[in-house]
């Protein structure tokens, strides 16, 4: 009949599309089969975690497989945080919203679920999760997510020790929320010191203790010390000389990620800035606004920043997947779980053999540099598995590390070059700008830097961000009139 277009026959190797489903029924009865090197039915790929590995792996899988797979990402946050810029965020050089990448915008075509994966039952090919909606729907608050391939990229959490008072008073430095909170906290301490004549309160407010001498701790210390020194210009009775910053490191040197020469130069720079660096020293307690150190020192302080390493996410222990003695997921060089089909892992939660190391048995260090590159190899290997192709081993030589120590100050050991001071600071910014995902975020970070070069630093503490309803609750619980 004229004007009637006959239906288009399905392309060879593809199954007809099914109507969209919701919830756990999203992947019901969908099993991947391979025929002539093509995936016949959509494979259900579950990515646990939306960090470096999760976001990059999901993006690469989506681009490689298209409609041949349904990629779902479960993340506790709807964004990925670019952690190397947290120190500059805490110092106010970069806006907090510009160091996070929205997952739903980047992962177009993927299903993004904001929630927590509680456990993985790989024997049933099912992950048990909880979302804000499921917790309000009654029952157990749990939902089941069946899968055909699972990528465990849940990352790490701060590795804490049983130090009295640490859980109650310590501040971590792994998330953008912690960076914002730490900045507000430091500026609030300057306000407290400026408004009291009590010597004990003042000393505790102006003493800041950072535990951990790696890149995270040294970078946070350097940026915050520089920011607080600048902020004292605007407090009438607090000077830069009143500030006391203390770095506590259990090892006999700082910055184990770089050579001894660069570490020594950095140590001299910190001490030149009157930063008290305690090597071979441990924090024994931090109760009642007093930090007790293993060398016998007692430091009155209201600020303890904990950056003493990381450990695999607690989810790893709730999975029926092979683990190492340290609690990490045991992977082979292809990033597949050892002796386990259809399960993959990378990043901080995975123990991945370093094939470029001279000593056999060496594992890849938990760093963003490895995580991003592992995500690419992992995604390619998942695609190769679905298509019946050979897998590729992960092999990458660590190119080095860079970290800021304040405005125009830094330390770098990159591509065999060891720098400190202004050149290292420039290298830090150039290298990490090239690694920030999406042109949108690169542009916003550059705009922040240009603006910071033209105008003075902001020194406002927005402490109310942590308790946004406090003012309303006070008003609702009182008899005062709104216009009073």
Automatic annotation (TrEMBL):
<keyword id="KW-0560">Oxidoreductase</keyword>
<keyword id="KW-0285">Flavoprotein</keyword>
<keyword id="KW-0520">NAD</keyword>
<feature type="domain" description="FAD/NAD(P)-binding">
    <location>
        <begin position="44"/>
        <end position="373"/>
    </location>
</feature>
<dbReference type="Pfam" id="PF07992">
    <property type="entry name" value="Pyr_redox_2"/>
</dbReference>
<feature type="compositionally biased region" description="Pro residues">
    <location>
        <begin position="1"/>
        <end position="10"/>
    </location>
</feature>
<protein>
    <submittedName>
        <fullName>FAD-dependent oxidoreductase</fullName>
    </submittedName>
</protein>
<feature type="region of interest" description="Disordered">
    <location>
        <begin position="1"/>
        <end position="20"/>
    </location>
</feature>
<dbReference type="InterPro" id="IPR023753">
    <property type="entry name" value="FAD/NAD-binding_dom"/>
</dbReference>
<comment type="similarity">
    <text>Belongs to the NADH dehydrogenase family.</text>
</comment>
<dbReference type="InterPro" id="IPR045024">
    <property type="entry name" value="NDH-2"/>
</dbReference>
<keyword id="KW-0274">FAD</keyword>
<dbReference type="InterPro" id="IPR036188">
    <property type="entry name" value="FAD/NAD-bd_sf"/>
</dbReference>
